Amino acid sequence: MALSLHHLVIDAHDLPALARFWCRVLEWQVLSEKEREVIIGPSAEAGTGICFMPGTDAKSVKNRLHFDLAPDDQEAEVARLLALGARRLDIGQGEGRSWVVLQDPEGNEFCVLKPRRNLIAFAD
Predict the structure, then answer these.
(1) Confidence (pLDDT) at 56
(2) CATH superfamily of 1-55
(3) How many C-beta atoms lie closer than 10 Å to residue 96's C-beta?
(4) What 3-state DSSP class applies to 25?
Protein backbone atom coordinates (compact mmCIF):
# COMPACT_ATOMS: atom_id res chain seq x y z
CA MET A 1 0.00 0.00 0.00
CA ALA A 2 1.43 3.38 -1.01
CA LEU A 3 1.41 6.08 1.62
CA SER A 4 2.65 9.67 1.64
CA LEU A 5 2.64 12.58 4.04
CA HIS A 6 -0.22 14.86 2.93
CA HIS A 7 -0.50 17.65 5.54
CA LEU A 8 1.18 18.55 8.73
CA VAL A 9 -1.66 19.96 10.87
CA ILE A 10 -1.01 22.83 13.28
CA ASP A 11 -3.55 24.04 15.83
CA ALA A 12 -3.76 27.82 15.84
CA HIS A 13 -5.69 30.60 17.51
CA ASP A 14 -5.51 32.97 14.50
CA LEU A 15 -5.46 30.62 11.52
CA PRO A 16 -5.09 33.23 8.74
CA ALA A 17 -2.33 35.16 10.55
CA LEU A 18 -0.28 32.08 11.39
CA ALA A 19 -0.76 30.64 7.90
CA ARG A 20 0.45 33.87 6.32
CA PHE A 21 3.49 33.97 8.62
CA TRP A 22 4.48 30.47 7.49
CA CYS A 23 3.78 31.37 3.85
CA ARG A 24 6.33 34.17 4.15
CA VAL A 25 8.81 31.90 5.97
CA LEU A 26 8.60 29.10 3.41
CA GLU A 27 7.78 31.27 0.38
CA TRP A 28 4.59 29.25 -0.06
CA GLN A 29 1.05 30.39 -0.77
CA VAL A 30 -2.39 30.05 0.77
CA LEU A 31 -4.12 27.31 -1.22
CA SER A 32 -7.45 27.20 0.62
CA GLU A 33 -8.93 29.41 3.31
CA LYS A 34 -12.07 28.48 5.19
CA GLU A 35 -13.33 29.55 8.61
CA ARG A 36 -11.96 26.43 10.32
CA GLU A 37 -9.13 25.44 7.99
CA VAL A 38 -6.34 27.21 6.12
CA ILE A 39 -4.10 25.15 3.85
CA ILE A 40 -0.73 26.36 2.56
CA GLY A 41 1.83 24.82 0.25
CA PRO A 42 4.26 25.52 -2.56
CA SER A 43 1.46 24.78 -5.06
CA ALA A 44 -1.84 22.92 -5.23
CA GLU A 45 -0.02 20.08 -6.99
CA ALA A 46 2.65 19.68 -4.29
CA GLY A 47 2.75 16.43 -2.39
CA THR A 48 2.78 17.91 1.11
CA GLY A 49 1.36 21.04 2.74
CA ILE A 50 0.49 22.52 6.10
CA CYS A 51 -3.08 22.74 7.38
CA PHE A 52 -3.97 25.20 10.16
CA MET A 53 -6.97 24.21 12.30
CA PRO A 54 -8.58 25.94 15.28
CA GLY A 55 -6.98 25.20 18.62
CA THR A 56 -8.39 26.44 21.90
CA ASP A 57 -5.78 25.25 24.37
CA ALA A 58 -3.17 27.70 25.56
CA LYS A 59 0.40 26.61 24.82
CA SER A 60 1.99 25.51 28.08
CA VAL A 61 5.00 23.30 27.20
CA LYS A 62 7.57 22.87 24.44
CA ASN A 63 6.13 21.41 21.23
CA ARG A 64 6.62 17.69 20.76
CA LEU A 65 7.04 18.25 17.01
CA HIS A 66 8.79 21.19 15.34
CA PHE A 67 10.25 22.28 12.03
CA ASP A 68 13.98 22.23 11.30
CA LEU A 69 14.68 24.71 8.49
CA ALA A 70 17.89 24.37 6.47
CA PRO A 71 18.90 27.63 4.75
CA ASP A 72 21.95 28.39 2.61
CA ASP A 73 22.96 31.11 5.08
CA GLN A 74 21.86 30.59 8.70
CA GLU A 75 22.68 34.10 9.94
CA ALA A 76 20.87 35.85 7.07
CA GLU A 77 17.87 33.55 7.41
CA VAL A 78 17.57 34.13 11.16
CA ALA A 79 17.62 37.89 10.52
CA ARG A 80 14.90 37.52 7.83
CA LEU A 81 12.70 35.40 10.10
CA LEU A 82 13.05 37.82 13.00
CA ALA A 83 11.97 40.63 10.66
CA LEU A 84 8.89 38.55 9.71
CA GLY A 85 7.83 38.29 13.35
CA ALA A 86 9.68 35.26 14.73
CA ARG A 87 11.26 35.58 18.16
CA ARG A 88 14.41 34.02 19.61
CA LEU A 89 13.80 31.36 22.22
CA ASP A 90 16.09 29.91 24.86
CA ILE A 91 15.08 26.35 25.68
CA GLY A 92 18.39 25.54 27.32
CA GLN A 93 20.20 24.75 24.08
CA GLY A 94 23.35 26.58 25.19
CA GLU A 95 25.97 28.35 23.13
CA GLY A 96 27.80 26.94 20.12
CA ARG A 97 24.98 24.80 18.76
CA SER A 98 24.55 24.26 15.03
CA TRP A 99 20.94 25.48 15.24
CA VAL A 100 19.11 28.60 16.37
CA VAL A 101 15.77 28.17 18.16
CA LEU A 102 13.00 30.59 17.22
CA GLN A 103 9.26 30.68 17.81
CA ASP A 104 6.46 31.73 15.49
CA PRO A 105 3.90 34.41 16.49
CA GLU A 106 1.85 31.81 18.45
CA GLY A 107 4.87 30.46 20.34
CA ASN A 108 5.55 27.30 18.31
CA GLU A 109 9.25 26.46 18.36
CA PHE A 110 11.28 25.85 15.23
CA CYS A 111 14.98 25.62 14.46
CA VAL A 112 17.16 27.21 11.81
CA LEU A 113 20.06 24.89 11.08
CA LYS A 114 23.46 25.52 9.63
CA PRO A 115 23.53 24.66 5.90
CA ARG A 116 23.20 20.96 5.14
CA ARG A 117 23.99 18.76 2.12
CA ASN A 118 21.40 16.11 2.94
CA LEU A 119 19.31 14.81 5.82
CA ILE A 120 22.33 13.81 7.91
CA ALA A 121 25.39 15.82 6.80
CA PHE A 122 26.38 19.45 7.30
CA ALA A 123 27.62 21.42 4.31
CA ASP A 124 31.34 22.18 4.43
Answers:
(1) 83
(2) 2,3-Dihydroxybiphenyl 1,2-Dioxygenase, domain 1 (3.10.180.10)
(3) 5
(4) helix
Q: Among 6-10, 44-48, 55-59, 78-82, name the one with the lowest average pLDDT.
A: 55-59
pLDDT of residue 1: 67
28, 42 Cβ separation under 8 angstroms:
yes
Q: How far apart are CA 104 and CA 12, in angstroms?
A: 11
Q: Where are the domains of the chain?
A: 1-55, 63-123
Q: Which fold has domain 63-123?
A: 3.30.720
Q: Is 37 exposed, middle or buried (0-12, 13-18, 19+ CB in 10 A)?
A: middle
Q: What is the pLDDT of residue 121?
A: 76
